[in-house]
Design goal:
The protein is α/β, with parallel strands linked by helices. It contains 13 helices and 11 strands.
């Protein structure tokens, strides 16, 4: 796909974001980086935000209306296909970007091997607290934001590289997307950014981190932090990430690693801490158990297509399994921290 050199296409995917969409889009229109375009993809909204977008689009942004909710992956892909930029920046509709966000992302993208750049994402209502500064990875396929919940005291500002960015606020090089492919719409939402990031890593692309590219995020505003639907998607897609992208020895070990993680999730439920503890507070343990069963039934049903994609990825990989292991070790998170921390 051809692109315009130097142009940055900012894609915002909207689904029922009427309450905060205006502030998000204004933050993009106020960016100091002038060579940009703004594209909004509406994912079948029903809260009035689609009508608001129609009324306000002219001269401000391009609007692509989808008839149904295709998930973050489908919405992002629709925006990428319509974009003309050499770089694609994604911004969640519930996030607000600092004025220098794009300029700081682009400053970290000068090396041609850098295919992705991660933002420093802070909480919207607690702007000194980190939401995500890139991602860490648990070797059964699950991931967590680096520094999530910690005060931002510059502890990550001297680390110029990270495993992969969070799709909430990330920059992708068009050349990388042409090489690796776009978001996998089979995932629908959650884990799709990890899937894309790991596919890019297998192809030898690097991910930079831009600590001055700050974004303020209303965390989990679409489904809710302790939503059962979110828990379903996260665990199902975690399973698909493992099968699709882990080298054989690690894939064979992943069931044991998952059981170890479930042990810590069990303790988090008893202590009412962590994400599992939060889900059981808002619902109950039986509902969470049924949600996990449903996730694995759906995950197994999708395995033939995931397996086909795995074969393609491993046929085209440019780094060795040893190099991939070293990346996992470098950016690894433990099961206890993954489960206990909220």
């Amino acid at each position: 796909m051809t692109s315009i050199p130097g142009l940055v296409s900012v894609v915002v995917v909207n689904w029922n974001g009427a309450a905060y969409l205006g502030e998000c889009l204004e933050s993009v229109r106020s960016q100091s980086w002038a060579n940009r375009e703004l594209l909004v993809v509406d994912n079948g909204s029903t809260d009035g935000s689609r009508e608001w977008l129609r009324e306000n689009a002219e001269g401000r942004f391009s609007l692509n209306e989808l008839e149904t909710n295709t998930g973050f992956a489908g919405g992002a892909n629709a925006g990428i296909l319509a974009a003309r930029g050499e770089f694609i920046a994604l911004l969640n509709n519930d996030a607000v970007a600092d004025r220098e966000w794009l300029a700081c992302l682009l400053a970290q993208s000068s090396h041609p091997a850098v295919g992705m750049v991660a933002s420093k994402i802070l909480f919207y209502d607690k702007r000194s607290i980190i939401d995500k500064a890139g991602h860490l990875f648990y070797p059964d396929g699950l991931n967590r934001g680096r520094g999530a919940g910690d005060p931002d005291v510059g502890q990550f500002d001297r680390h110029p590289e990270i495993f992969f960015p969070d799709g909430c606020a990330a920059l992708y090089r068009r050349e990388m997307l042409n090489d690796v492919g776009m978001f996998d719409e089979q995932f629908f939402a959650y884990g799709d950014d990890a899937d894309l990031g790991l596919r890019a890593r297998w192809r030898g692309w690097r991910c930079a981190y831009a600590p001055r590219a700050r974004v303020y995020h209303r965390h989990s505003s679409s489904l809710g932090k302790y939503s059962l639907q979110k828990a379903f998607l996260v665990e199902r897609n975690r399973f698909w990430v493992a099968v699709k992208l882990l080298p054989w020895p690690l894939l064979l070990a992943s069931p044991g690693l998952t059981l170890w993680r479930f042990f810590w999730h069990g303790l988090s439920i008893l202590s009412r801490r962590g994400l599992a503890g939060g889900v059981t507070r808002d619902h109950n343990a039986w509902s969470l158990f049924k949600c996990l069963i449903r996730a694995y039934v759906s995950g197994i049903a999708g395995l033939p297509e995931i397996w086909r994609k795995r074969r393609q990825i491993f046929r085209r990989r440019k780094i060795t399994s040893g190099e991939f292991y070293r990346l996992i070790v470098k950016y690894r998170i433990g099961a206890r921290e993954l489960a206990i921390r909220d």
